[in-house]
Each structure stands twice: as structure tokens, then as C-alpha cells.
Amino acid sequence: VIPVKMAAREGATTTLTPEMLEAKLTKDLPITFVQVVDTTASQCGSAFEAIIVSEAFVGKALLARHRVVNKVLATELETIHAFSQKTMTPDEYEKLKAAEPVV
Predict the structure, then answer these.
(1) pTM of the model
(2) Which DSSP string do the residues of the chain spell out, in sequence order?
(3) pLDDT, average across residues 54-79
């Protein structure tokens, strides 16, 4: 894994990983489930896909949900080339899981 480095305010760098994004989301939102995957071919940390399940999304339209996530990850998003997010309420997530066939 060759993660992207984020410039810190003091001039040092911090390695950006899926785990860091998950930790930030979990710290700032009431998370039921979160999964972030580095989708770049070289796993360099410039593109991520996220599934985020939170009570914070109840009653919010899709754009409002994405704005909530984008606000939490504002600093991190400055260094990410692509960020795809699927946001769901806990009820939506449970219905989705129940509809998927077991293999």
C-alpha cells in the first residue's frame, strides 16, 4: 500500500488510509456501519469508496447526507482525487442486507 500523504498544518505529512477515514467518520458521526476501500489500482490512497450507515442521515435527502460526510472529511477531501459514498440510515441498510441472497 502506497498511501497519499496529507500535508499537516505544521508542514509535516500524514499518511491517508481507509482506516483513518473510517476513524474520522466514527469519531464525528453516530455510525452503525462504515467501510472505506482504497480503489486506486496501486492502492496509493487517491481514490476511495465508502459505505456509511448512520442515524444522522434519518430524514435527510441524499445530497444533504453527502454534505454531512463531506463536512466531516473536509480536510481529507482536499487531498483525495475521487471519493464515492453510499449513505444509508440503519433501517435502509437492514432492508438492503435482507434483500441480498445468501450464497
Answers:
(1) 0.82
(2) --PEEEEPTTS-EEEE-HHHHHHHHHHHS-EEEEEEEE-STT--SSEEEEEEEEGGGTT--HHHHHHHHHHHTHHHHTT-SEEEEEEE-HHHHHHHHHHSPP-
(3) 97
